[in-house]
Structures are given as C-alpha cells and as structure tokens.
Amino acid sequence: MLQPTPPPLSPTPAAPFENRLLALLRRAGLLDWFLLGLVGAVALAYLVPGVGSKSSPIPWKIITTAGVALIFFFYGLRLSAEKLTAGLRNWRLHVVVQGITFLAFPLLALLARPLFEGLKGEQLWQSIFFLCTLPSTVSTSVVMVSIARGNLPAAIFNASISSLLGIVLTPLWTSLFLNTSADGGHLWNLALSLVWQVILPVVAGVLLNRRYGAFAERHKGALRISDQVVILLIVFTAFCESFAEGIFRSYAPADVALLALGMVGLYAAIFGLVWGMSWLLGFSREDRITALFCGSKKSLVHGSVMASLLFPGMAATGLLLLPLMLYHALQIILASMMAQQMSRQPDAAPVAV
Q1: What is the pTM (predicted TM-score) of this model?
Q2: Tens of pLDDT along 135-156?
Q3: How many CB atoms lie within 10 A of CB 221?
Q4: How does 40-52 read in b/e, with b if 16+ C-beta sit within 10 Å?
C-alpha cells in the first residue's frame, strides 16, 4: 500500500530583525560583557555615588590596590625570565611608546592652544594639557595588550616605566606651562606605592614562573576575567568619587558632549600616529599592538593623585579632571572594542620596512 506523500517542508522563516541585530553587535564586540559592565559601572556610580566614594564604609582603596597587585603577580607568573629579558631588549618599541606618551601628547596640546580663547577657553586648555602630560595606564594597558595577543612582556615594561617617568615628567611639563605646587615627599611616596603595587608583584611572579607558570597558563581564561573585574571596580569607584564631588554639575550636557568629541579626536589622532610609526619602523603585529595600547592611554589614577599634589586647594580641580575622566572612559571603551576585534584576527607576519 502506497504511503501518502508528506507535504513539502516549509522554508525556515528568516531570523527576526532583532536576532540579526544582536548577531551584528556580537561580531562588532559591542555585546561583550566587559563593555556592558563598564557602562553599568558608570550608571551605578551615578545612581549611588556614596557607595564607592571616599566616604563609603567599604574599603575600596584596599580592595582595588590588592586587585592591581594580584593582576601583576599573575602576569609575572605567566612570564619566564627569558621572555621578559627579550621584551626589555626591544628598545625601539620602548622609545616609540614613551615618546608618544610624554612628547607627542603635550606637543599636540601646545599646537591646539590657539584654538582656546578667553578665560574659560584657557582653563579648559590647561585641563587638557594636564591630561596630556600624564603617564600611561598600568593595569588597563597590559590587559588590553593581553586580550589583543600583543607583546605582553614589553607591555608590562612600558606601562611600569611610564608610571615611573611620569612622577618626574608630569610635574616638569606642568611647571613649564601651569602654576603648580608639589611636595617632593608626596611624590616619593607615590613612587614607593608604584613599586610595591606593580614592580614587586611582577618580580615575585617571574621568580615563581618555573614552579607555577603552567598553572597560570591553564587558568588564563579565569585570570583574564578577574583582571576585568578589578578594572570594573576601579572605574566604579573613580566615577563614584567624581559624581559625589559634583565634578559634572556645572557643565551643560552639550559642553560635556563637545569635550567628549574632542577627546575621541585626540585618541584617534594618537592612535593613528602610533600605527603609522609602527608601520614605518617595521614592527611585528605583537609590537604594534603593544605600542598602540600602551602609547594611547592616560592614567586616571595617576591624574587624580597628581592633581591633588600639584594643584593643592585649587578651586577648579573639577574642571582639571573633567577631560581626564572623559578620556579615561572613552579610551577603555574604544580600546576594549579594538582589543576584542584584534583578538579574533589571525596572526600576521611582521611588516617589512
């Protein structure tokens, strides 16, 4: 007996627009949990600034300080002494990164000075110039290089030496063009803090690499997540303090938006400059990534400390920190997108000169 012919299968319906949009955002890296966490940290800081400010009973300073130290300990644990020594020998990369950080940034600000007119414009330019004299970030630079699969030993070296150089070069630049007052003892304490938070944990990790390096490699995914959690805590507490002190209160939304657009332009100009120099010098893919992420960053942590040391009692401290706050937020968001995109790209051969 013949079986009835089954009805033809209907074609699978096209995916709804929402699904296609989500897939597009995922491919662009815009639905990464870390990026969403950054936006959520800023929004939460706006809603409950007292939770993460200095007046909070939660010891955020101790938590974030310990978190940064652990980040660098585990980075050191994944580094053999041979790899670290090889990274230190890459002097051309180091010259590019430090030259961009402490020469190109301030010179760009000086070139842009004629664009700022009047008292309000001069005050705004001073705050932008202060941003440009700061050292690179430490933890976020290294994390972004790690995500994008760049030269990690060179990133640790450049991020650390940038912070050390900034203790001298930031006061030097600001003393030439801004009215400052700094206490050498406080700067010495800042240097000591950097040593025990960054350099000593890295050294301890490198020394333990032979015994526990394989363990760190097996769990590098979990360690990466812990790094990102620490950064989210740093961002949350930094924005809590800013909102609690009313840094953004005296600015109209249009003013902040225009300044943010300028910070995006500054970041894009520096990023393009670093990329061009890296290409001309024939850097490998890993070195280009390290130069891009270490050379384009500015440290909110160092900026906040330096502002209190160099401009004690200054009434316009909020204005001084506003461009830095915007640049810090934008650099993390933009760099995170770029790092995620680079991590998906296949390794490339070194660029020929």
Answers
A1: 0.65
A2: 998 777 888 888 888 888 888 8
A3: 7
A4: ebbebbeeebebb
